[in-house]
Specification:
By secondary structure, the protein is an alpha+beta fold. It contains 1 helix and 5 strands. It has a 5-stranded mixed barrel. β4 and β5 form a beta hairpin. The radius of gyration is 17 Å and the shape is globular. It starts with a helix and ends with a strand.
Length: 98
């Protein structure tokens, strides 16, 4: 009976996790205390000419343990506002830059 009680709550938790936006990008700065700057690139098709263009966005993310270094590929997830410009937090470092 306890298994059936825990399953609906686990499903709710999974749905909440899925609704958060997860983004992968490269760390371009880790000079701030507990904050990293992540460059996220995406490909966009030009509306008239059809050429594929690369667009980029810089996002500030919270890095509690200062784990990420410059050049690392990281995954960040959307969270509540932490400061004026920070509303993402570091989830994992995918690839360390040598």
């Amino acid at each position: 009976m306890s298994d059936t009680d825990t399953q609906p709550t686990q499903q709710v938790v999974e749905q909440v996790e899925k609704s958060k936006r997860r983004v992968v990008g490269r760390v371009i700065s880790n000079k701030m205390d507990k904050t990293i700057t992540v460059l996220v690139e995406r490909s966009v098709k030009h509306p008239l000419y059809g050429k594929i263009m690369r667009r980029s966005t810089k996002l500030h993310a919270h890095d509690e343990g200062s784990v990420a270094k410059e050049g690392d590929l990281v995954a960040i997830v959307e969270t509540r506002p932490i400061s004026r410009s920070k509303h993402f937090k570091l989830v994992e470092v995918l690839n360390h830059h040598a």
